[in-house]
Amino acid sequence: MDKNRTEGMKHEVKGAVKEVAGKVTGNHAKEAAGKIEKNAGKVQNEVGKAADQARDRKH
């Protein structure tokens, strides 16, 4: 499994937690930061998936 997949998942989870914490506390900046981190994690996860697929095609 590509390192980007694991790191991406980590960022998705951290971002989701920040987003919820921001919503609960009414902290719009934290909520926005959580959304950004969550979406960046999704992108990183997809990059990792693409790398895994490319490596699998070579074999």
UniProtKB/TrEMBL annotation:
InterPro entries: CsbD, YjbJ_sf. Residues 1-21, 28-40 have a biased composition (Basic and acidic residues). SUPFAM superfamilies: Hypothetical protein YjbJ. Residues 4-56 form the CsbD-like domain. Pfam families: CsbD. This is CsbD family protein. It comes from the Bacteria. Belongs to the UPF0337 (CsbD) family. Residues 1-59 are annotated as: Disordered.
